[in-house]
């Protein structure tokens, strides 16, 4: 939601702002061309406006990148927690008993086959968390990198236990 609102703000600011800056630049150019008595001041103000506009566009771009990075990190944490919960849930689903007779053994075999299928799908999620963690660790340092490693390690250890 925040990203969408900022995208809208960025788009509106860029388009409407550019129109206004272009309009002011046109007026300044007209004043300078007409030989206004304060040509130097008009030119300075025009340059100042253009620099401020360029700075604003750069700040908007920087903020967009920061929001994208924050979203990606937040998504990683969410995915890691979700994957960890699914792995732990699968650990609890695995029965300890073995079939005592043929019918029970066959039922356990069917359950085991379904369980293996679920595990294969979960394996892709675990790999994705590991890949995302490796990529994000390169982008972050210090406490955030350690937190990323901690989340990845929790998922990997739970997966290894499974």
TrEMBL record:
Gene3D superfamilies: 1.20.58.60. The keyword Repeat applies. It comes from the Eukaryota. Pfam families: Spectrin. Keywords: Actin-binding, Coiled coil, Repeat. InterPro entries: Spectrin/alpha-actinin (IPR018159), Spectrin_repeat (IPR002017). Residues 112-146 form a coiled coil. SMART domains: SPEC. One of its GO terms (molecular function) is actin binding. CDD domains: SPEC. This is SPTN2 protein. It comes from Alectura lathami (Australian brush turkey). The lineage of its organism: Eukaryota, Metazoa, Chordata, Craniata, Vertebrata. The gene is Sptbn2.
């Amino acid at each position: 939601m925040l990203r969408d609102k900022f995208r809208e703000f960025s788009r509106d600011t860029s388009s409407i702002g550019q129109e206004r800056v272009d309009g002011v630049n046109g007026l300044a150019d007209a004043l300078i061309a007409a030989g206004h008595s304060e040509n130097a001041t008009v030119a300075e103000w025009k340059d100042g406006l253009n620099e401020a506009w360029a700075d604003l566009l750069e700040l908007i771009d920087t903020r967009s990148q920061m929001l994208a990075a924050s979203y990606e990190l937040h998504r990683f944490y969410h995915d890691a927690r979700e994957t960890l919960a699914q792995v732990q849930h699968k650990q609890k689903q695995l029965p300890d008993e073995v079939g005592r007779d043929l019918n029970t053994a066959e039922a356990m075999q069917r359950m085991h086959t379904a369980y293996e299928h679920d595990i294969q799908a979960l394996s892709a999620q675990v790999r994705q968390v590991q890949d995302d963690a490796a990529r994000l660790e390169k982008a972050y340092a210090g406490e955030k990198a350690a937190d990323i490693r901690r989340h990845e390690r929790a998922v990997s250890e739970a997966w290894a236990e499974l």
